[in-house]
Design brief:
The chain is an alpha+beta fold and about 475 residues long. The chain folds into 5 domains: about 1-95, Uridine Diphospho-n-acetylenolpyruvylglucosamine Reductase, domain 2, CATH 3.30.43.10; about 105-220, 2-Layer Sandwich (Uridine Diphospho-n-acetylenolpyruvylglucosamine Reductase, domain 3), CATH 3.30.465; about 225-320, Alpha-Beta Plaits (2-Layer Sandwich); about 325-425, 2-Layer Sandwich (GMP Synthetase, Chain A, domain 3), CATH 3.30.300; about 430-465, Vanillyl-alcohol Oxidase, Chain A, domain 4, CATH 1.10.45. About 35% of the residues lie in helices and about 20% in strands. The protein contains 17 helices and 18 strands. It has helices at about 1-10, 20-25, 30-40, 55-70, 120-130, 145-155, 160-165, 165-170, 200, 235-250, 260-265, 285-300, 310-320, 325-330, 350-360, 395-415, 430-450; strands at about 15, 50, 75, 95, 105, 110-115, 135, 170-175, 180-185, 210-215, 220, 225-230, 255-260, 275-285, 305, 335-345, 365-370, 380-390. The strands form 4 sheets. The protein has a 7-stranded antiparallel sheet, sandwiched between helices. The chain has a 5-stranded antiparallel sheet with strand order 5-6-10-8-9. It is globular.
Amino acid sequence: MADIVATLQRELGDCVCTRPEVLAAHRRDSWVLSELFDLEGRPAPLPGAVVEARSTEHVSRTLALCRKAGAPVVPFGGGSGVCGAIVVPEGAVVLSTRRLDGLRDLDAESLTATFGAGTNGMEAERAVEKQGLTMGHWPQSIELSTVGGWVATRAAGQFSTAYGNIEDLLLDLEVVLPDGSVLRTRRTPRASAGPDLRQLFLGSEGTLGVITEVTLSLRRQPQARRGQAFSFENLESGIEPIRRLMHAGWRPPVVRLYDAAETSRLFPEICPEGRALLILLHEGPTGAVDAQAAGVAAICGECGGEEVEDSVVDTWLETRNHVPSFRALLERGLILDTIEVASTWNRVAELYRNATESLRAVPGILIASAHSSHSYQSGTNLYITFVARPEKPEDRAEIYRECWRRTMEVALAVGAGISHHHGIGRVRRDVLSGEVGETGVALLRAVKRALDPDGLLNPGALLPE
């Protein structure tokens, strides 16, 4: 790989970095197993170089030169992914988008904002807030992730029940294909010009192209905001009012239902022991917020909900992104993860029961719990959490894989989706055929071969080996 590094340095100058600390910072994303392997002294290999692209032309030139040399390239945004989409092959070229940043255009009349793909999510939100606007997209990783990464991983935000996910906000994009050619989609609210090419890159995890610019549809800052909270006998009984309020046409941006275990762990003073907690946040014109809150309260009351102090919503807003690092918990001998799946309403209760029961049979399991955080007309997601402490620390990787295997097995058995918004990476790639079928995997392989015939762009991610 020394030849391609020398070529890139000659062609791109100081955009190419080989400093050890920079290489080490771009070896992998934030996948739990990668964190564990670091802790155990077997880290991911170092890349041969990091190209810190400052323009679309830099990206184009890098990909063209690497294709000619047969060198693998791994796109890298914020590195906040948690499914192992980035584990850099030894000596590969990492193509960082972080210098492709900043607000490039804001149209307050059309409510659109164009960002360089490497723009940090919180910086992007602050840029539009100055104009009284918001993206309405609040992933937990907003302070770490990039707008291009949101598209590449098909991300969801905490306010998605009203405002939609990244595919609903994406208006147009610029992407560099593996041969260095540049695709720019049209900035239009809707089109019927054949298949939507944006969909190729939503969720592609850097395997089909490198996103360089993103235009998102914005909204105005809400006039009013109001929180609500209700307790229910259990998670299953709390699902029904969510289904009913969605079917009634109410759309609170935040609709989060925690099972009893998570309620007692996160909000110990809010609910009576053993009950589930539903928190809601309403936003919009004052009259609409009041009407929606009243409608939701009526539905929750009909379903046996008991209203609790709404200050819990303020607590959640203040602390929603404050979570312990995986490393801190791994250092205590634990192994853990969150697995987000999705289901139609008729399967949610079965999915919850079967997944948590199966996880509780894993040796050393301490926690098997869940909450719902993104709901739709036809169903909702479940965020399933597991924490285990194996008797032997060296068994943690095996226990981790067993917890994932059981959860994926349950999801497929009940007809649920295997991923809601974290993506596939390496942790789910071997069960992808269960979601899209062998025909679907073959189709994805065909698209990959057409765009990247040598398989050089982010090898090992998304597609089963």
